[in-house]
Amino acid sequence: MALQYLHIGFDDTDSPRRGCTTYIAALIVEKLEKLGVEFTDYPNLVRLNPNVPWKTRGNGALCLRIRCNENVVDKVKEIVID
Q1: Domains present along the chain, CATH in parentheses
Q2: Longest dimension (CA), the chain
């Protein structure tokens, strides 16, 4: 089975009901760990332009880098999009 390298970036997930982007990242990491993917780096917190008037409170984005078998790529997508 071939390995796939995936770079997952996300932002603008803040909401009073679901939490901030870093909290969403923590939930995604937990689910991906249960799926058995390998993280190839620490999660990267990307600080965005502080002068943008429509920024969120934390003003950050996240990137997760993983390696997984190609047969779980669709499940990874499902976890991230959910």
Answers
A1: 3-81 (3.30.70.2200)
A2: 47
